[in-house]
Amino acid sequence: MQLLERIMNAWKLRLSMAGTLAIIFGLSTLVFTVIMSLAGVFDLLTLGILVVSFNILQWLISPYLVGAIYKVRELPENENPQLHQMVENLSQKSKISKPKLMLAQIPIPNAFAYGSPLTGNRVAVTEGLLKSLNEGEVEAVVGHELGHLKHRDVQVMMVVSFLPALFYYIGFSLMLSSMYRGRRDEGGGNALIGIAFIAFSWVLNLFILYLSRLREYYADRHSVSVVDNGAQKLSTGLARIVHTTRRVGKGQKEKQNKSAFKALFIADPDRASADSAELAAMEVQSDQKLVQEILSKEPTFADKLVEAFSTHPNIVKRLRALRELS
């Protein structure tokens, strides 16, 4: 019965992600076709091609940008053979090729998967993660990141992220062009169409954020499937990550850097302060006790509102989903 329930939950998650993707692509195609027909401005197609080309270029070079921002270097096998063996074993269980193992030289406890056709797949762990988590928790975090690679989340999120950028820049272009139109009626019409484009890009972003949160749940499920006692290890690892992140240095430059590619992380560093503030109010004796205290909380309306604009699920909801898998 429990096995059947897990299978049903897994399919519900897959259908939710597929439905969200369908909404994103369907609405994008519909609105783009309608507004392009109404505008009758065919040189916008050139702008669209430029936006897509720019985003593809950004994707191709993004591993180098990530490497520069987070001070990432390749981790030699002789420097940490145990971690390399862990990644190798989990990659085999995940039925994917072993990605390059990278070390981000920052104190924030986190991990992320990334890559492009130019660099191949990579999994990075931070120095803070290796210092803050025990071996089992690190294993569960790595399993989560390998789940992102197996599900091709990097590519999926890259593709859907094109769409709001495309709509925003076309809308902005229409608004600018309306300022230089000689005829007020035509210029005013383009301005309204431009505003509609920009507004739609914001709505689309909400769907993309929801899709990102769904894929975090899906990667959690993968970790549980390839790591022994993965639900408990990942739960305590996540609790420790959000609890530790707040204590890390909060310089403005560091804060900007750590948030630049926060969608890549296993936990959202921008939410860590809010999540950790809740945890700090709890008197706990162990990580497992900390997890139980989190699970006993009910997300408030403010928590749900913040989550709607976040790339990652609320910590309480995320740990409850893991509990159902344990």
The tally of domains stands at 1
Q: How many individual helices?
A: 13
Give the uncertain stretches in residue-range form: 251-256, 276-285
Kindly report the oligomeric state of this protein: single chain
Global morphology: globular
Structural description of this entry:
The chain has 13 helices and 4 strands. With 326 residues, the chain is of the alpha+beta class. The chain has one domain. The longest helix is centred in the middle third of the chain and has 43 residues. The radius of gyration is 22 Å and the shape is globular.
Topology:
Elements lengths: L1 H38 L4 H26 L2 E3 L6 H14 L5 E5 L6 E6 L3 E7 H6 L2 H16 L2 H27 L4 H43 L3 H16 L6 H8 L9 H12 L6 H9 L5 H8 L6 H11 L1
Helix pairs in contact: 1-6, 1-7, 2-6, 3-5, 5-7, 5-8, 6-7, 7-13, 8-10, 8-11, 8-13
What are the defining features of this structure?
72% helix; 13 helices; 326 residues; single chain; alpha+beta
Outline:
The chain is of the alpha+beta class. The chain is built from 13 helices and 4 strands. The chain has one domain (2-325).
